[in-house]
């Protein structure tokens, strides 16, 4: 049992260290701590300055010594100015109206986002018809709160109950709104072109719940009804879904009860990657290949850091965490400035792909959105994603609040409830778990202590090698990501930001106009000021900002296969970690991992996102 051994050698943090000039005063004490991690020897000599040259005078020209944006400008005005620019320079449709799911009678079969000639699941993803009108949602008046347990902690009795509920769902005829197939199709309809924005006046524009700020609330509602339907099927009003606690070393293998058990296990799915059966340790930075030579201790350690980056460093404001604005008239993929949130693009995509079977034409089931709902694991992956929203909000960090824009609050979806009635539900009604009458079992959260270990030595970018500078200077946008690329990003709006500056604005690296092939699993990694061989990185260094990951997705069949997205990575903590808070420019290294042959990047810049309480 490799994974078991693995768990026994992971050591919890024992030391507390405050970073100089850190943002930590706004964080709870846990964030001040550093993790004890496993030293990975192959990267141990990266601080070596050998072979690096001081730039000749001419090359220094690319490194301005005064910040253009801060000269003679009052900082508060600058912040306000940037804030205004930030929120209005996007697609004007952003202020139009919220995304509104139309009547289900407008749903059409999905045809996009997968190889339509070679599918193992149906493309007819529309929900069963009904003549009844859509009802208004009412909050449950359950007496007890359903407590979702961590899957690795559940009892035999719970497992038996869970399996009997899934079996009851599988036993329903497919055209029943509560059937296993109907529930699976919900995901396909909302992701693979089942609906348009006709209810908001845009009948030609598809409705998409991934890749922007609907990701968390849509899945919260989806699970809410799925859980209540299961409870109803076994006549247990307290039934709660388990969550796959993959962010905790104790939960980093697939829970056993999803495996074949000699009988017919309703929680089993044949379309999974068989290399990733227990006791394989999950890779939360998965890029399509198992990393040879990475011990499970190193894997766990890397997973912890990846989680920290995605939950804290890269999640410092609502848009960075939830994803960018997406309102009526926006195409989540092809226009505007939709950006994907830190968790969605990161561990979420990784777990999907890690579970799906790479030998299937579309990596069914979990590796493609159209089929993901057919694997019961999908719902326990997503309960944990939903839990991340709760944990993020509870961190007591300024900026960790839901979007307040009316277009987010009033976006709506339509589901069959546990009484087979269609109800319309709004984002604004899913913000408080106590009103929805469910919660999560509390378990240790070790990634809270897993801020990457700060470099003791400043990452001295003035000592870049001549080749690096030349390469970075030669980079032209749109930048093709057919190989590792280096870019110098100039003019941070404010350098050496004060604690107050940091409280008022989140500094992010914005990677825009990422064009990618919608039929591929796409992933690239992003490093800041890395002065070592990034192709050997496991993603656990302080220079590792994070990844852009996309499952094969949908696209407009009338256009080419390219989709467009954007992503933000937090710089406030990262620049502290690498000792570069005073630098006016940063070196960004982009590392294609999978599916990046056609990827191009339109723009990379540093941006200040205002933080409000
Ligand atoms: Cu709707 Cu995990 O995706």
Summed up:
The protein has about 625 residues and is of the alpha+beta class.
Description of the structure:
With 613 residues, the chain is an alpha+beta fold. Helix content is 26%, strand content 14%. The strands form 5 sheets. It has a 4-stranded antiparallel sheet. A 4-stranded antiparallel sheet has the order 9-14-11-12. It has a 3-stranded mixed sheet with strand order 1-6-5, covered by helices on one side. Strand 5 and strand 6 form a beta hairpin. The site of CU-O-CU linkage (C2O) has 9 residues, from helix 5 and helix 9. CU-O-CU linkage binds next to helix 5 and helix 9.
Number of helices: 15
What binds here, in terms of ligands, is: CU-O-CU linkage
* Inertia-based shape: globular
* Alpha-beta classification: alpha+beta
Largest sheet: 4 strands, antiparallel
Please tell me the overall pLDDT. Answer: 83
Instruction: Count the beta strands.
Output: 15
Strand portion: 5-15%
Q: Which stretches are poorly predicted, pLDDT < 50 over at least 5 residues?
A: 1-5, 7-94
Walk across the major sheet and give the strand order. Answer: 8-15-10-13
First-to-last CA distance = 46 Å
| Gyration radius, rounded | 24 Å
Helix content: 25-40%
Secondary structure layout plus pairing:
Elements: H1 2-9, H2 57-60, H3 75-88, E1 135-136, E2 146-148, H4 156-171, H5 180-191, E3 196-197, E4 202-206, H6 215-233, H7 296-313, H8 318-322, H9 342-355, H10 376-393, H11 406-409, E5 412-416, E6 422-426, H12 433-436, E7 438-440, H13 466-474, E8 479-480, E9 485-489, H14 499-504, E10 505-517, E11 522-528, E12 544-550, E13 562-570, H15 572-577, E14 586-594, E15 600-610
Parallel strand pairs: 1-6, 2-7
Antiparallel strand pairs: 3-4, 5-6, 8-15, 9-14, 10-13, 10-15, 11-12, 11-14
Bound molecules: CU-O-CU linkage (C2O).
CU-O-CU linkage binds at residues 187, 191, 210, 219, 348, 352, 369, 372, 382.
């Amino acid at each position: 049992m490799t994974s078991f051994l693995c768990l026994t050698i992971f050591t919890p943090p024992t030391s507390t260290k405050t970073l100089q000039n850190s943002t930590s005063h706004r964080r709870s004490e846990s964030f001040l701590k550093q993790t004890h991690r496993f030293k990975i020897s192959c990267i141990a000599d990266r601080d070596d300055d050998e072979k690096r040259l001081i730039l000749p005078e001419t090359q220094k020209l690319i490194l301005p010594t005064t910040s253009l944006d801060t000269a003679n400008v009052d900082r508060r005005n600058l912040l306000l100015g940037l804030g205004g620019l930030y929120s209005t320079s996007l697609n004007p449709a952003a202020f139009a109206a919220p995304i509104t799911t139309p009547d289900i009678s407008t749903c059409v079969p999905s045809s996009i986002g997968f190889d339509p000639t070679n599918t193992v699941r149906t493309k007819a993803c529309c929900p069963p018809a009904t003549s009844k009108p859509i009802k208004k949602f009412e909050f449950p008046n359950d007496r007890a709160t359903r407590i979702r347990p961590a899957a690795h902690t559940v009892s035999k009795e719970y497992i038996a109950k869970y399996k009997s509920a899934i079996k009851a769902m599988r036993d329903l005829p497919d055209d029943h709104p509560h059937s296993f197939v109907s529930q699976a199709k919900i995901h396909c309809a909302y992701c693979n072109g089942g609906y348009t924005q006709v209810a908001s006046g845009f009948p030609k524009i598809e409705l998409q719940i991934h890749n922007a700020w609907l990701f968390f609330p849509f899945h919260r509602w989806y699970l809410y009804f799925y859980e209540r339907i299961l409870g109803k099927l076994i006549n247990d009003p307290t039934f709660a879904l388990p969550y796959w606690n993959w962010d905790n070393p104790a939960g980093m293998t697939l829970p056993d009860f999803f495996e074949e058990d000699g009988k017919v296990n309703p929680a089993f799915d044949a379309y999974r990657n068989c290399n990733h059966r227990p006791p394989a340790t999950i890779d939360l930075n998965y890029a399509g290949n198992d990393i040879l030579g990475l011990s499970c201790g190193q894997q766990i350690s890397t997973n912890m850091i990846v989680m920290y980056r995605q939950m804290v460093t890269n999640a410092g404001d609502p848009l960075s965490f939830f994803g960018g604005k997406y309102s009526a008239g926006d195409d989540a993929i092809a226009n505007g400035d939709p950006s994907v949130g830190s968790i969605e693009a990161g561990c979420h995509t990784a777990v999907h792909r890690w579970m799906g079977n790479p030998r299937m034409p579309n990596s069914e089931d979990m590796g493609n959105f159209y089929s993901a709902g057919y694997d019961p694991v999908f719902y326990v992956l997503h309960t944990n994603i939903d839990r991340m929203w709760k944990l993020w909000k509870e961190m007591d960090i300024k900026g960790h609040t839901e979007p307040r824009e009316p277009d987010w609050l009033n976006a709506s979806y339509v589901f069959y409830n546990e009484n087979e009635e269609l109800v319309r539900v709004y984002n604004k009604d899913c913000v408080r778990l106590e009103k929805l009458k469910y919660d999560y079992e509390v378990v240790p959260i070790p990634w809270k202590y897993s801020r990457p270990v700060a470099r003791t030595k400043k990452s001295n970018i003035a000592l870049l090698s001549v080749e690096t500078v030349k390469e970075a200077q030669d980079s032209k946008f749109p930048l093709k990501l057919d190989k590792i690329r280096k870019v110098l990003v100039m003019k941070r709006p404010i350098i050496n930001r004060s604690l107050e500056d940091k409280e008022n604005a989140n500094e992010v690296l914005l990677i825009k106009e990422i064009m990618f092939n919608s039929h591929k699993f796409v992933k690239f990694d992003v490093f800041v000021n890395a002065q070592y061989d990034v192709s050997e990185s496991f993603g656990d260094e302080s220079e590792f900002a994070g990844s852009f990951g996309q499952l094969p997705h949908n696209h407009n069949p009338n256009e080419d296969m390219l989709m467009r997205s954007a992503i933000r990575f937090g710089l406030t903590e990262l620049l502290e970690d690498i000792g570069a808070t005073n630098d006016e420019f940063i070196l960004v290294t982009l590392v294609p991992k999978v599916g990046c042959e056609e990827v191009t990047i339109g723009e990379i810049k540093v941006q200040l996102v205002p933080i409000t309480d």
